[in-house]
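ok so I'm stuck.
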Amino acid sequence: MAADRVRNAAESESGPLPQNPFKLRHVPKWNDVSDFLSIRAPRLDYSRARVEACADIWDLRKLARRRTPLAVFDYVDGSAASEITLARQRDLYSRIEFEPRVLVDVANVKTRTTILGVESDWPFVFGPTGFTRMMNHEGEVAVGRVAARHGVHFALSTLGTTSPEELRRAVPGGRKMFQLYIWRDRAFSRELLARVKESGYDALILTVDTPVAGQRLRDVRNGFSIPPRLTIKTLMDMSLHPAWWFNLLTTPPLEFASLSSTGGTVAELIGQVFDPQLTMADVEWLRSEWDGPIVIKGVQSSSDAARVAAAGADAVLLSNHGGRQLDRAPVPLEILPGVLEAVPENVEVFIDGGVMSGGDIVAGLCMGAKAVFVGRAYLYGIMAGGEAGVEQTMKILAKDITTQMVLLGVDDVSKLDRSMVRVRER
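replied:
not stuck anymore, here's the structure
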């Protein structure tokens, strides 16, 4: 064969060719094997170790599913009706394509920004979520502690299980917002505003997309209520999640810190206290009652964004409530460019919904959002492992953001812009 002729010719000129050293065999010695061994001493904090082994938010979600009862997990994981909106949000993020810049000095990446005039070390906010102590007994305090450690804004919900005063005492530092629902009882709303102001919160977020509760069918099928009812089904669930039930039953009662009515389904609670007659006049009323920054959450069109900006809002949060209210609602990331054109430059525009990675956050910033609100991601973390799980959420998002920026060739979040991103067709 030709190869044999070439080999024979080479050997005739310079003698036999040397044998491939990597084909030689020998009996391995201990030193040859020990370099490959990676045996770690067992850790006593097994719960923390499981959380720290999670590489992304989806890993935290899997762990959260194993560690919490189905009804609780589904309350976080699900959305309204056929869950079309939630699926569309994830689909849009999956079709985002970045256009990186190369040969750029990205040795020092800066992620600091300002949100409503207050510095934030990261361009995202731990958004408001209700019933947080139901996900894990450490609740809003755990989220607030992680946010304060990392210089991130945290928004406490009216439907939180920690009061504004309790959170301030437990987490005296950090940047705090308060998310408000306006009650049928305006006197109560005024009283709550006074408490929030006295507690030193930086900004107020008025949620306007909840005149009634959305059709959250997972909750209906699971018989979900606040607090969980002890039925035959839940008693059976105790055997599968004993740690969760032990924590629930041995810590202070699960109740809403800002509500006098604390029992029933989510729809029943919303129907009892939320005012379905909310109008633009109430935004103007709130502006007269609160002298700090006001964010209007739940805006889903350019025209409404322009209206609330004209009524005195300092920012709008484009949100469909995580797909949990109106199914087939607009996707915030998709309507963001039009809203930016409709509001004055001094009005900040935020988005939320479907965010599961730092790449999603970077995509939102490239599309023009001032900051991105995160909810489900840290709830998966707290269900997976309490404060340690929220800490892991923070680390995952922070690492992902900085990595994405370096690979994009951007050394400062202020330089992220629309030229770096496009949306691929299906």
